[in-house]
Amino acid sequence: MEEFKNFEIKEKTNYFQIIIENREYIFPGIFYICGLLIGTVFYGNIESSIVAKIIDLTTENNNEYFTIFINLFCSYFSVYVITVLLGLCLIGFPFVNILPLVVGVITGIKLSHYYVTYSVKGIGYSLLMIIPEITALVTVLLFTIKCSNELSKYIYDATTKKIDTIQEFNLKSYLKSFLLYGFFVVIIAIVNAVLQYLLQSIIQI
How far is CA 187 from CA 2, 43, 73, 99, 193, in A? Predict the structure, then answer.
C-alpha cells in the first residue's frame, strides 16, 4: 500500500516537471487559447466595421497565385519579424507572449464570423482553409517565441549584471534557429498559397 502511494506521488511529480521543462511552449500556447476564447466570446460585441477589416486583411480573395503568396507571406512574416525583434530587445521577453494572444483573438473572430454568417458552410470553410493554416503558423511561432524569450532574458541579465560572463552565450545558435524558423514561415506561405489557389474554385464563400 505504501509503495502504491509513493508511485502515485512520483507520477504527479513527473507531470509537474514536464510542465516546468516545457513552460516556454506551454505558456504561449495558453495565451493563444485565451486569445481564441476572447475573440469567440466577444465577437458579438465587436463593431461590424472592425470585423470586416479583420476579415479583409486576413482573407485572400484573389485569382492570382503570386498575389496570394505575397499577401500571406507579408502577413506571416510580419508576426515572425516582430517576434525576432522582441528577442533582440532588452525588455522584449515580458511582451513576446502578447503575439500569440493577438493571433488567437484574430483567429477566434474569423472562426466566429464564418460560423455566424455561413453556418455549416462556414464551419467547412474554417476546417479546410483557416485551421490548418493557423495551426502551422502558431507551431512555428511557439518555437520562435521560445528562442526570443531566452535571448531577450540573456540580454537583460547581461545588461543588468545578473550574470558575470558571456562565454557560454552563443549568438550564432540563436540566429541559426531564427533563420530556420523563418524558412518554415516561407514554406507555410508557399503551401497555403498553393492550397488556396487550387481550392478557391471549389470552395467559395
Answer: 54, 31, 9, 21, 10
CA-angle at 65, arms to 201 and 124, nearest 5°: 40
Pairs from 19-27 (Cβ < 8 Å, separation ≥ 24): 24/145, 24/146, 24/149, 24/150, 25/142, 25/143, 25/146, 27/97
Cell triple for 87: 528577442
85 alpha-carbon distance from chain centroid: 15
**pLDDT attached to residue 196:** 84
CA–CA separation, 110 and 104 (whole Å): 10
Query: Each residue of 59-84: pLDDT tens digit?
Result: 766 678 888 899 899 999 999 999 99
Provide the greatest CA pair distance for the chain.
Answer: 69
As separate numbers, helices (DSSP H) first and strands (DSSP E) second, the chain gives 7, 0
- Give the number of other Cβ atoms within 10 Å of residue 104's Cβ: 25
- What is the CB neighbour count within 10 angstroms for residue 65? 15
Radius of gyration of the chain (CA): 21
